[in-house]
Write a structure and sequence with these properties.
Chain lengths: 224, 78
């Protein structure tokens, strides 16, 4: 990718942050306290921004924000020596807080007592993929073909990931925790599964021949 | 066409998609470019990241969050 590997001169504010955080004594302590306060604000805002898409509320939400800010600060301090100024320091640091919020919400999914997943909720699939009840009959054959392709064309791993995310509605970050995997690995598994399913449906005349192009998967946003 | 656009969009993949690791590695760079220029400019410079953010819900959520946080950065110095 262009323009992300070169070292560049830091802007004044970023340079100040890096210098203070890598110093010792009061300047470092002050910078640490300021940065923690900023990361905590970002974590709180992020949890509030995602309200309605996660079940965390009240004191538990603030606990989660503190945990995210604490862990983000540790991550920032572990990597500040490698900060090269491709972005503003604060944007770089905030990224750790946002990613910690995502990771903690993924773990929290399995801690909820209300989580009672029934594996293979195929009747939910049309709704998850935007099909209205009155369209069900029209697409029954395609839906059956999709289900058959999932059973016959995917590997065990792809089928497991597809079923968990698309059929059962498990958030991708929660599946990462359950499988001890990474977001990138699960995404790649789903990417390959989508390609296979499209090819299978196309081969049987249900879809046009596979054509790669931009996708807009709002259903994933709704379910994660 | 199936008449089921959501399914077709779901099954469509973009070969430019760089995946989560690469997208998240430069998410801060991408966000600052969006804020200092435009989303279109960022997408032109990093088409693989733009493709990924269209397809990956969790990374798009992180992008939205970082964009909101970094956009408030000037108000954060309290």
């Amino acid at each position: 990718m262009p323009g992300v590997s070169g070292e560049r001169e830091l802007d004044a504010e970023s340079a100040c942050w890096v210098e203070d955080l890598r110093s010792s004594g009061p300047a470092r302590e002050l910078a640490l306290a300021r940065l923690h306060a900023l990361l905590l604000r970002v974590a709180r805002s992020e949890l509030r921004r995602r309200e309605g898409r996660h079940p965390v509320v009240g004191p538990e939400l603030d606990d989660l924000a503190h945990q995210a800010a604490d862990d983000a600060l540790v991550a920032v301090m572990a990597k500040v020596g490698r900060f090269r100024g491709e972005s503003r320091f604060t944007t770089w640091a905030y990224k750790f807080a946002v990613l910690e919020v995502s990771a903690k919400l993924g773990r929290h999914f399995w801690q909820r007592p209300a989580v009672t997943l029934e594996a293979g909720q195929w009747d939910q699939l049309p709704d998850r993929l935007g099909l209205r009840p009155d369209e069900l009959a029209e697409h029954a054959e395609l839906l059956a073909a999709l289900r058959r392709a999932v059973a016959e064309d995917l590997t065990d791993r792809q089928r497991h990931v597809f079923t968990a995310i698309v059929v059962d509605g498990v958030p991708l970050d929660a599946l990462v925790v359950q499988l001890g995997s990474s977001r990138n690995a699960i995404y790649k598994t789903m990417f390959d599964a989508r390609r296979k399913l499209r090819a299978a449906l196309a081969a049987n005349g249900y879809l046009a021949a596979p054509a790669d192009g931009p996708a807009d998967l709002d259903w994933v946003r709704r379910s994660s | 066409m199936t008449g089921w656009p959501e399914l077709e969009a779901f099954l469509r993949t973009d070969p430019r998609d760089v995946g989560c690791d690469q997208a998240l590695r430069i998410l801060d760079v991408y966000v600052d470019l969006v804020l200092s220029d435009t989303a279109e400019a960022a997408a032109r410079r990093y088409p693989g990241v733009a493709a990924h953010l269209l397809a990956c819900g969790p990374c798009a959520e992180d992008y939205d969050g970082l964009l909101a946080a970094a956009g408030r950065a000037g108000d954060d110095d309290t």
